Fold this protein.
Amino acid sequence: MSARRSTVDAAVVGAGLGGLVAARELRRAGRSVAVLEARDRVGGRLLNAEIGDGKVVEVGGQWAGPTQKRVLALARELGIETFPTHTAGENVIEWRSRLVRSRGSIPRINDAVLLDVAQAQARIDRMARQVPLDAPWLAPKAERWDGQTVESWLRRNVATAGALDLFRIGVEAVWAADAADVSLLHLLFYTHSAGSFDDLIGTEGGAQQDRFVGGSQLIALKLAEDLGGDVKLESPVRRIEHTDSGVRLVADGGEFEAGAAIVAIPPALCGRLVYDPPLPAIRDQLTQRMPQGTVIKCMALYERPFWRDAGLSGQATSTEGPVKVMFDNSPPDGSPGVMLGFLEGRQARELGEWDPEARRNAVVDCFRRIFGPGAAKPLDYVERVWAQEEWTRGCYGCYMPPGGWVSYGRALRAPIGRIHWAGAESATVWNGYMDGAIQSGERAAAEVLDELDGS
Ligand SMILES: Cc1cc2nc3c(=O)[nH]c(=O)nc-3n(C[C@H](O)[C@H](O)[C@H](O)COP(=O)(O)OP(=O)(O)OC[C@H]3O[C@@H](n4cnc5c(N)ncnc54)[C@H](O)[C@@H]3O)c2cc1C
């Protein structure tokens, strides 16, 4: 195949939500674009899986909360409707091998644990509000907070073993990493970027409140449809050459010259491109310090959501695992019944190395322990191991280990000559989420338009 050579106003690396939104903004401003996508599909971390009868489940990102205004507005504009996550009924927690039923996001285990959790959560929210969203390293206690992990803070600031367990599960659920991996400053930044800790972990009123009819990948598919031939699939970018006046992107099967580039991929993958001349040390070292979390999203399909008959919402938590967090993920009409479980952090790393059959058995057995014998024999099973994906290499998003924000954070969004950075990890609001990816695409497009207008 002879290599394509094209010249456009701006080239975008990655056809996830961030890259597609950036391209749309550029096109709306009358600029020509090329979106270079490594995979043979668009959407990146958004991916629908068909489950028969024209229905889908998402094996990647799926929920939107009421304060995620950008993703909700974009979906509305594209004619994609939302429906509420099923929450009617009681939640279950498998607590030290005992099943306890209750309502709300915090399980009713014992009063001392609940008080401990409430106090620590209030402190987290108070500290989080002091972290500037565009410059976490300028928080009044930034060095102190970035000099410790969430685990070390929890050990000093919760009094009960129960609260420690619940917070560890909460951290795994939000960052797909262990509390010992994550900088306290990162947790505080991320919490502020979402609003509050409850906004992160909550279903009704929180980040898990609503789902998209037809699956979240529809948002990316519709954006790509409007961009038409400007999206080039199976075009992984390998190298970016850049000067004061423009960029040249070398992708498999083509070369693209442009006035500017927007790189809309996770930081760890940004560090795997070759730049000529090489990027400044601080930017490269930043990408060495922003690892992706580890998650396997697993769903078992049943004829009906039988747990609803027993008065259960399908939402569950387990201290035993390996699945620690579960949701009813059935389609809007409740057919088939879909039980969703996440393997996160350590469990995802460990079970990610297992044979798929053994992993499926471990997940289904967990569902059986919590929801009874009806869960033992699913009709089907769907999963996605995101750390194994060549063009993602971990999810949900990335986290900062200690020291990352204070020493390297200022390189996160700063353009380098004609290279601009987008992607959910670069967002200030709802960092790590679809909503943040959209904000990042809008911001990077505005930077590029300013630059192109001035050149
Ligand atoms: C299991 C899971 C559950 C999640 N749950 C939620 C949720 O419920 N709600 C929510 O809001 N968010 C959720 N997220 C996060 C959400 O999916 C992401 O924040 C968002 O989709 C990221 O969009 P992006 O454009 O920044 O990055 P990506 O979607 O990662 O897009 C980057 C694109 O770049 C491509 N690419 C990579 N390298 C190259 C290269 N060298 N050349 C060309 N192309 C390249 C990739 O193939 C990809 O298409 C979840 C994610 C996962 C995986």
User: Anything to note?
Assistant: The radius of gyration is 22 Å. The pocket of flavin-adenine dinucleotide is lined by residues 13-19, 36-39, 44-46, 60-63, 236-237, 264-266, 269, 295, 297, 386, 391-392, 395-397, 423-424, 432-435, 437 (CB under 6 Å). The chain is about 35% helix and 20% strand. The first strand starts at residue 4 and ends at 13.
